[in-house]
Each structure stands twice: as C-alpha cells, then as structure tokens.
Design brief:
The protein is an all-alpha fold. The protein has 11 helices and no strands. Helix 4 packs parallel to helix 7 and helix 10 packs antiparallel against helix 11.
C-alpha cells in the first residue's frame, strides 16, 4: 500500500500541474451540455424519435475513449522515457501497485465529468447510480488500455501515435453506431459502445422502460474487456517494465 500511495501522490502532483490535460476533463461535458440544452431539448428535436440524452451518451463515450487512453499512455511513456518507471520497479513497485497508483488518480479525475454527464441526463437516482457505475467501469478499461500502450511505446511521441487511432475508434465509433447497424454490431464487443446500450436499457426511444437485461449484458461485456486488458497490462509490464 505504501508503494501505491507513493505512485498516487507523484501522479496527482503531475496531473494538477498539467493544465492542458485538465481542460480535456471539462471540454467533453461542456460540449454535451451545449448540444443537449440547445439542440436535444429544443422544439425541433422534440418532434423526432431520438432520446434527448443522445448527445450526453455520445460525449461520455467519446470522453472515455478519446481523452483517457492517450492521457494514460503518455503518462506511462513519459515514465519510461525518463527512466522513472525502472526506478520504481527497482524500488519494489509491483504491476498492481503501479496500476492502482496511476489508475487511482485518473479514475478519481474521471469521476467529476462522469457526475456532470449524469446530472445533465436528469436521471432518476437509481439510473444515475447505474450510469456512474458503467462510466467508471469503462474508464477503468481505458486506463488499462492506456497503460498497456504506454508500456510498449518507446517515448511519449510513439505512445501518442499508437494511442490516437485506438482512441478514435473507441471514442468516435459509438457516435456513428446509432446510425449504422453494421458499425454498431462490429463495436458491440468493445466497452465504449456499451455506454450507448446501457442508456438504451433505461428507456426506449418511445419513452417506455426497456428490458434491464440490456444493462446487465453491457456490464458483463465491459468487465470482460477489463479482464482481458488487465492480463495484457500484466504481460506488458513483465516484459517491458525493466527495460525502461
């Protein structure tokens, strides 16, 4: 636990100093708020069959993919480039210590935009709890993916180059999926797409309450993603960590 606290404190200080990163945690909720209040809750949109939470869901999935994956990958790549990761390992930091330290900071920071998205949706208390749970679960998957990419990257530039295509697919894919059945089917195995499906589990487009089985299925897929990504991270850390 001492190693986890050390990594957590180090990363918390670095994150607070990085203003460009903190802006990303505000940008996506701000866009969701503008699109929801000015478009989705407007008179013209009200005449359509689309749910007013559509932009919230889209921006939430985009945030989890586009913001978190490159951010975490760059953190790890910078630690490798500066040899600080090797120092931590030689000091006795284990893979789970590093994961909990870095992941804890990013997950805590992700809680604030997640709450903002949830409040914008005007969900009932139970629905808000489910939404926050699925958001933080998806954030956990992105953290693991970012950590793995960062471990394999030689430097920060390489990490960004590797992370961005993955982040674009996972972040922007769910924004297209509602309008393309083939894309929705292809992305169905990935955790960001499950944010859309969890929302569909609350209400259908007609406003009637939908089958809660959709929510349970989405959680199962997200946590299956987390399990696979955790194994990949552990393997990457074991193979590449000491070479930092």
């Amino acid at each position: 636990m001492r190693n986890v606290k050390a990594v957590f404190k180090k990363q918390a200080k670095d994150t607070v100093k990085n203003a460009a990163t903190l802006v990303q945690f505000l940008l996506f909720p701000a866009v969701a708020f503008a699109m929801t209040e000015l478009v989705a809750r407007g008179e013209m949109f009200a005449e359509s069959d689309l749910p007013e939470t559509m932009f919230i869901t889209m921006m939430a999935a985009t945030f989890v993919g586009m913001a978190l994956i490159p951010f975490v990958a760059s953190i790890v790549a910078e630690d490798r480039e500066k040899k600080s990761l090797r120092f931590l390992i030689m000091a006795g930091v284990k893979p789970h210590d590093y994961l909990m330290g870095i992941g804890g900071v990013v997950l805590f920071a992700s809680l604030f935009p997640s709450v903002a998205f949830g409040l914008m949706g005007r969900f009932a208390p139970g629905e808000l709890g489910i939404f926050l749970a699925v958001m933080l679960s998806a954030a956990t998957a992105s953290i693991l993916l970012g950590l793995t990419i960062g471990i394999y990257a030689k430097n920060v530039q390489a990490a960004t180059g590797l992370a961005m295509p993955v982040a674009m697919m996972l972040g922007f894919g769910p924004t297209i999926a509602p309008f393309n059945e083939q894309i929705a089917r292809a992305l169905g195995v990935f955790y960001t797409q499950q944010l859309n499906l969890v929302m569909a589990g609350f209400y259908t487009v007609s406003g009637a309450q939908a089958d809660p089985g959709i929510v349970l299925q989405s959680f199962a897929i997200i946590w299956a993603n987390i399990a696979v990504l955790a194994v990949l991270f552990a393997v990457a850390f074991a193979k590449k960590g000491l070479r930092s």
